[in-house]
Amino acid sequence: MDGLIARHKNEYSSKPQVIASAPGILNLMGEHTDYNEGCVIQTTVNRRTSIAISSRKDNSLRFFLADSEEKKRTTVPNLKYKREDRWANYMKGVLFELVNMGYPIKGLDVTVVSDIIPGIGLGASAALSVAFTAAVNELYGFGLSDSQLIQAASYSESTFVGRNTEITDQFVSTIGRKDNAVFLDLRSLDFEYLPLDLDDNVIVIVNSNVPGTDAVREAELIERKEQCSECVEYLNKKKPGRSLRDYSVEDVSGGLGLLPEQIRRICNHVIGETQRSVDACDALKAKNFEVFGKMLNRSHESLRDNYEVSCPELDWLVKRSQEMDGVLGSRMTGGGFGGCTVTLLESRVLDNYRERLQEYEHIFGFEPEIFICEPSEGVKIVFPDH
After folding, report:
1. Is 169 annotated as catalytic?
2. Whether residue 384 has a cis bond before it, omega within 30° of 0
């Protein structure tokens, strides 16, 4: 925190008034179910975005990304999306929504630091929006509830920036709890905490480092959402429902004459993945890690074969992991076409696991980044002390 205070003071010649910090997230189960009103299990990670802010006497907004020394500027009356503003758009979107909600906003000096790698499915943009919303809320004393904070952060990404995302990442980055996962029902937004007491096991994240996947992922996600809507249209001919959450595997089987093969596979993934999330919740509560590991494996098979959002690099990492002694389960996580895998393994084989994955770089030319998932607290104000 001292480093962030110093960077802010050096950039703006004044000490920050507020610093907020929000964690990245990891999807453990429930991939591509959120926009079908399904269920997910997510947890926070021990990588965070921290934002220092101080008020100005004018309406100027100055944003400083300390990690890369990038600077962006605008004003409160000119809160518009600009492609060239990239990361700053997420904060501009938060302010735009807060103004729409009736909250008075003045000029701000903002400094951002983060160790969450963007574009790999660990919720970097959600952490940015959530941390900034919390900092502004604290500075002005708006008294936002968690749901209002989540609303502003989610609006920024889904509407102002225009990305095809749901509320999931912002939700968990806000309410996450140390050493816990969150089971979230996307239809009702009911949730419960799941203690991640893994005994002698660890959850390992591997960043495949596949380059240039963000634009591909975004385009494919748009297509998958359209296909999910198409699925519902087909199934509606026999049974009314508003999303794939309303259908079962039997409904899909009964619609074989109506459903094109690709649509059938998409239906089967979403329906099966939602059920896996419910079953995985039960397995984690019972500390049945072997069952949970098998669900990870089945989830990857479905993402690869039914939803078709994997890629050779992710498939290799998952297959190599699953072949190892002491690995209970592994799958891709996030939107797909690159990004990360999540693997549950026994702590005793962690060093061997790292060694076995060294072959990846020789085959694909990208060095994988391997780190342990340690669930951290959700968004919090770290300065001033409370």
Report:
1. yes
2. yes
